[in-house]
Design brief:
mainly alpha, 7 helices, 75% helix
């Protein structure tokens, strides 16, 4: 992953860099680490078994990471999922999870 690719994907790179004291190498290391830590299977499973507390913990943690790194497209989707889980809404999460998965793998490519 590089800065230009992150910008193309719609990330607020300057905000993320500011949080990392404008250290580009450090910022990219954190971005790559965040993307390598794929929590999607755990999130899906927690939702399938309706363990909304566990699903919320996972989504909330992802929201924090994506927010701090200004990975805006991922943040926006996981924010929506987090808020539904916070309210323990028993809704069909499939479309949101699919949307998140597509976005996540766009970043991974």
């Amino acid at each position: 992953m590089n800065i230009n690719k992150l910008k193309e994907l719609g990330c607020e790179v300057n905000e993320g860099l500011n949080r990392c004291l404008n250290n580009e190498d450090f910022y990219l290391k954190l971005v790559n680490r965040a993307l390598d830590d794929n929590k999607l299977p755990e999130l899906k499973n927690a939702i399938v078994i309706k363990d909304f507390d566990k699903a919320f913990e996972i989504a909330h943690a992802l929201k924090g990471v994506y927010g701090n790194l200004s990975l805006t497209p991922l943040y926006d989707i996981i924010y929506e999922i987090t808020e539904l889980l916070r309210a323990k809404k028993d809704v069909d999460y499939k479309d949101l999870i699919d949307k998140y998965e597509k976005c996540y793998f766009k970043f991974k490519d």
